[in-house]
Amino acid sequence: MTETGLSRLLVATLGEAAAQQTFAQLHVAPALLQPVGETVARAELAQALNMALFRDLLARVPEGAAYVAEAGKIVFDHGALRTVAWPSGALPPGEAAITRVLRPLGYRFAETYPLKKLRMTGRSWRHADMPEDIAQFFVSELHPGQFSPAFQATVSRVIGASRDPLAPADLALLEQLARDKVLPWEAALRLLPRLLACFERQHGLFAQSDYEALKAESAEMAWIATEGNAFNHATDRVADIEAVASAQRALARTIKDTIETSASGRVRQTAFRAASVARRFLHEGQVVTLSVPGSFYEFIQRGRIAEGALDLGFDAGNATGIFKMTAAA
C-alpha cells in the first residue's frame, strides 16, 4: 500500500492489516489519496473517520461483512446514527453531540426530514469539499417530550449520566480545525481516536425493566439505549438495487421484502435486517445478558437531477421504512 496522508491516518488508528483491508473494501476518490504533507486536510480526516466507522459497522453486522467480502470495492454512501434530544449528563443533548464533530471536519447541514410516526427528526450532513465522494451522515434525534411522562423519566434514568468522550483539549483541536481547515500531524493523529469514541454508547448499565418500558413506546429509543451513538447502519451506493436485492435474497440473506422509493423516484433503498447482539442489563441485583437488535447494512440507488448532479437527498418515507429494520432481530 503506497503511503498517502489518508493511509497514514488509518494505519496509525487501525493498524497496518486492518487499514489495508479497509482500503480494499472501499472506493476512495483519487483526490483523497494525496502524498503525506506537512498538515492533514479536513477532508482526509473526515474520510479516515468514515472508513474506520465503516469497519466498525461491519464488525457488528455479519451479513454486511459477508456481502462486502464478495462485492469487492463498494461506494460508501452514508452512515446513520441516532441521538436523543434530552438532557444527557456531560454529553451535549441530541445531534449536538455529533454535529460539533462534523462541522470542523467540513460537513454542512443539508436537509431536514420530519419522521413524525417515530417522533423523531432526521437531518443530513454533506461534506462541503467533496459531497459526492465523502460519505454523508444522516443524524436523527428522538424527541422524548412527545412521549409519556413515564417514558421521559425512564429516558432520564438511562442516559441522564452520560459521559462526554471529548476532553477540553479535543474540543480545542476541533476549533483549530474549523478555523484552519487543516491540523498538524501530531494533532490529527491524537484527535482521530477521540472522534471515533464519539460514535459509541456513552452511558452505563441500566435496568432491564427500563429497556422494556422504552421498547413499549419506542423501538428506536430502546435501540439507542443499548447501542448509543454507534452507526445504526452504513450504506452501499449501488447501480441496480433490484439486482442486488435479488442476488442477496437468492443467498437466503435477510434482505427487506420491498424497496423504499422516494417521492421523486430517484432515491431507492433497501437493507438487511438488523443483526442480533448480546447486551448486558441489570435485573434484580444481577447482571443479565439478552439478545437485542443491533445495527444493519443498507443499499441505496441514486438517480441524477436535471442538472446532471447526483441526487444526494433522502426521503422521510424511505427513512421511516428503513428504521423498521431494527424493530426486531
Could you describe the 3D structure shown?
The chain is α+β, with helices and mostly antiparallel strands. It has a single domain (5-326), classed as 2,3-Dihydroxybiphenyl 1,2-Dioxygenase, domain 1. The protein is built from twelve helices and twelve strands. It has helices spanning 5-14, 16-25, 42-60, 62-71, 96-102, 149-159, 168-180, 185-196, 208-217, 219-227, 241-250, 316-323, and strands spanning 39-41, 75-84, 107-115, 120-127, 136-142, 182-184, 233-237, 260-261, 267-271, 276-283, 286-293, 296-302. The strands form three sheets. Strands 3-4-5-2-7-12-9-8 form an eight-stranded mixed sheet, with helices on both faces. A two-stranded antiparallel sheet has the order 1-6. Strand 4 and strand 5 (136-142) form a beta hairpin. Helix 1 (5-14) packs across helix 2 and helix 3 (42-60) packs across helix 4 (62-71). The two termini are 38 Å apart. The mean pLDDT is 96. It is an enzyme of class 1 (oxidoreductase). InterPro entries: HGLS. Its cofactor is Fe(2+). Belongs to the 2-oxoadipate dioxygenase/decarboxylase family. Its EC number is 1.13.11.93.
